[in-house]
Specification:
Length: 300
């Protein structure tokens, strides 16, 4: 039986190569920008682009060599080009393995502070819990989502409102998370104003290696003005809370950050002194900048 040669044998083109996926856009009359999904790009003349897609480039031309080295084409005989392209793509997306490590769970939108700069849709403490507190159902679904993350190191941060107003759900989440976490490392942080801290919370935090993050806006008068609560004692509650956590769980289990307001601007020295007196080694100014305190006389 007669056997036909393959199609390439009848081609009058000097070079048989295949195109790899790419995008292109016109830059000006004669120049196009071609890009591919491993992040390579090339500026190519319109005429060369036409010859390239029609497979008319000769393998000795510079444009051919550049297109080949940047994975815009591969030669039929060279299957390894596809493997190289896949390897390059895998390397480029390697960061996804560390993706979504930090997860924030808002356990309650209720709060007994009424800070003027509050950025959440805060509700009063006597507001309807069914509306403003996280339910068990939401907690379970959230954890299922969290543990779909490819990251092996997960941080769950409880925020509010004041998250400790719904301490029951925090306990449930930590216990359930420990059951379903598999081989992942999970760290828990409670971001709290510390007004609600008590023995039960401290014991639970100690057993489960939970960290705390709080707000310390500066000296007493400034803190109380920035962070009003019934009794005008938010500063006292914060300082007492910091001491209780350090005594019960460990010195490094609590960190603090400040919110800068108009009233803070003239009190930078007092604010830094407040942090030093309370044993903090640095101040975090939200997302703007940070200052490291070396000792009382030197700021870096
Ligand atoms: S303590 Fe936090 S949640 Fe409560 S009012 Fe102040 S900023 Fe808002």
């Amino acid at each position: 039986m007669a056997k036909f040669k393959d199609l390439n044998s009848f081609s009058n083109k000097k070079n048989i190569y295949n195109l790899l996926p790419f995008n292109f856009d016109q830059i000006d009359n004669d120049i196009y920008l071609a890009t591919n999904f491993v992040g390579e790009h090339i500026l190519i003349k319109k005429s060369d682009l036409g010859r390239f897609v029609n497979k008319e480039l000769t393998s000795t031309s510079n444009i051919y060599k550049e297109l080949k080295s940047k994975h815009f084409l591969y030669e039929n005989k060279n299957d390894i080009a596809i493997d190289l392209l896949a390897l390059k793509k895998r390397t480029k997306l390697n960061f996804l393995k560390e993706f979504t490590g930090l997860h924030i769970m808002v356990t309650s939108l209720r709060c007994e502070h009424s800070c003027p700069y509050c950025q959440v849709s805060r509700a009063n403490t006597n507001s309807n819990k069914n509306i403003y507190d996280m339910s068990h159902d939401t907690a379970i679904k959230s954890l299922e989502l969290i543990f779909q993350s490819p990251n092996n190191n997960i941080k769950i941060e409880f925020q509010g409102g004041e998250p400790l107003l719904n301490f029951e759900i925090i306990k449930f989440i930590v216990n359930h998370s420990e059951k379903i976490k598999g081989t992942k490392n999970v760290q828990y942080v409670i971001a709290t104003n510390l007004a609600m801290i008590n023995h039960e919370i401290l014991e639970f935090a100690k057993i489960n290696n939970i960290f705390f993050s709080t707000s310390l806006d500066g000296p007493e008068s400034l803190h109380n003005k920035n962070r009003p609560r019934k009794g005008n004692n938010s500063y006292q509650k914060t300082i007492e809370g910091i001491e209780k956590i350090r005594e019960s769980i460990g010195y490094d289990k609590i960190s603090a950050l400040m919110t800068t307001t108009k009233d803070s601007l003239s009190k930078s020295k007092e604010i830094i002194d407040e942090y030093i007196e309370n044993g903090f080694s640095g101040i975090f100014f939200k997302t703007t900048f940070s200052v490291r305190i070396c000792n009382k006389n030197k700021i870096l």
